[in-house]
Amino acid sequence: MLTQYIDWRSTLFVNLAFAVPAAAAAVVLLVNERPAIAPKLDLAGAATATSGLFALVYGFSNAETHGWGAPLTIGSLAAGAVLLVSFVLLQARGKHPLLPLRVVLDRDRGVHISPC
Predict the structure, then answer these.
(1) DSSP for 33-92?
(2) Is the pLDDT of residue 11 over 90?
């Protein structure tokens, strides 16, 4: 109806019917509370996870152009695997992990493969 009777540009304003009440409710209901003790940042975990995923993506992208046997492909895929394994080890032993392993190990949140 909007495009037929008004203009197609009016469809861009449909989201305002949801966004304005949501923003008003957020201003009223959300409260900024600061904890007494600031949580520690897991910089080592963030660095290993980010660089490990980057190395994997770069390795797969490089395999498309240079082949699976190229030294850069093998090296970046191996580096990605080593970095991601070190990320898991850091998360298992860290006091303030970026991704607590109990989250992944929980059956409701982790990977659940259902039989076909």
Answers:
(1) ---SSPPPP-HHHHHHHHHHHHHHHHHHHHHHHH-TT-HHHHHHHHHHHHHHHHHHHHHH
(2) no
CA–CA dist 60, 33 (Å, integer): 43
Q: What is the pLDDT of residue 70?
A: 96
Q: Which tokens go with 101?
A: 């392993």
Burial of 52 (0-12, 13-18, 19+ CB in 10 A): buried
Taking the C-alpha atoms of residue 52 and residue 77, their distance in angstroms, rounded to an integer, is 9
Residue with the larger pLDDT of the pair 9 and 73: 73
Tell me the per-residue pLDDT of 35-72, one tens digit each, with 9 for 90 and over: 888 888 899 999 999 999 999 999 999 999 999 999 99
Backbone phi, psi, residue 82, to 5° = -65, -45
d(C-alpha 113, C-alpha 21), whole Å: 39
- Distance, CA of 40 to CA of 24 (rounded, Å): 32
Residues in the chain: 116
Whole-angstrom distance, CA of residue 36 vs CA of residue 39: 9
